[in-house]
Amino acid sequence: MTKREIETPDGRYIIYYSFEDEEPETDDDAACPS
Amino acid sequence: MSELRWNPLLEEWVITATHRQDRTYQPPADFCPLCPTLPGRQATEIPDADFDVVVLENKFPSFRTPAAEATVEGNELHPVMPSIGVCEVVVYSPHHDRTLSAESVGKIHKLVRVWRDRFEVLAARSEVQYVFIFENKGEVIGVTLPHPHGQIYAFPYIPPRVKRELEACQTYSAKHHRCLVCDIIGDEERDGRRIVAGNEAFLAVVPFYARFPYEVHIHARRHIQALTDLTEREQWSLAGILKAVLVKYDSLFGFTLPYMMVMHQRPTDGADYAYYHFHVEFYPLHRTATKLKFLAACESGAGSFINDTEPEQTAAELRAAGSSKAGP
Lengths: 34, 328
What we know:
The structure holds two protein chains of two kinds. By secondary structure, chain A is mostly beta strands. Chain A has one helix spanning 28-31; strands at residues 2-7, 13-18. Chain A has one helix and two strands; from the N terminus they run ββα. Chain A is rod-shaped. Chain B has one domain: HIT family, subunit A (2-Layer Sandwich). Helices cover 26% and strands 20% of the residues of chain B. Chain B has six helices and twelve strands. A nine-stranded antiparallel β-sheet of chain B has the order 3-5-7-6-11-12-10-9-8, with helices on both faces. In chain B, strand 8 and strand 9 (202-205) form a beta hairpin. Chain A binds chain B through residues 1, 3, 6, 8, 10, 12-19, 23-29, 31-34, and chain B through 45-48, 50-57, 59, 104-107, 109-110, 113-114, 117, 233, 236-237, 239-240, 243, 324-325, 327-328. Strand 2 of chain A pairs antiparallel with strand 3 of chain B, so a sheet runs across the interface.
């Protein structure tokens, strides 16, 4: 999980969460380890 | 302008936040402030589309730090407190029309990890006593922006409904030396009629005492107090059971069901809440495909809910509704 934080012109934060290469999108069944 | 005003009759705070009257209400899809900004188009709240989940400070917050200036002065009978805290918006996806129920278990697992992270970050702030993670979905619930998103309110106090649960759990624990919610889970499993779905780490039920016809509570089977107590495998389980319940909701009446979703976790004021038990609650307003449950005089004025349905029957309907593997 990576977080990238930026600030808006009015001083609020925006945090982008990315999960590149950590948990690739899979179908529902494969998503759950058994 | 915003402040907390004390209600001495109910001994609870009311959040006054007059600036929220001006917040964006149901804009056309082309002007959605939670869609990423497109090249050559009007800037939105989210400049970049490269994300899985994005968290932003609410533009129209009920709490903020530093707190907004109060509109009135309090007195002994009517105390006023600064509405200090944090309000965040959690945007589930760059896609405007994709509800959480349509996301994969893998994507919901990412959201679980973001919720955990926000709980941890906000809980560490000295002004925060309670981190409330929730989602309002659908116009009948009062949602102002249809883009799929949830919210987080980092309260400067423990909200009253959670406080009542804490007191009940503490009293039960002192009397029986067991956890109240653990015993509720055991009773629901023995009975079986109100179970909606389950996996190795979570059990979803229409509770015995449901206030809304299709209310569902998802209980952690293990005695834990917060998202941060979940193991990696349990995080997948939570994603799986959320997906299972959401798919059932959307299969029930043939349209994507509006609901409120709330997470009840331990407070973050530093005290010991080992007697409490993490769970998630869903409150849909629909009692049929075309009729809503309103909070009318008995609910709003007397504080007593009337449920027009039997939890055993609505649980059976939800069990029979569309299925998705509930995960490990």
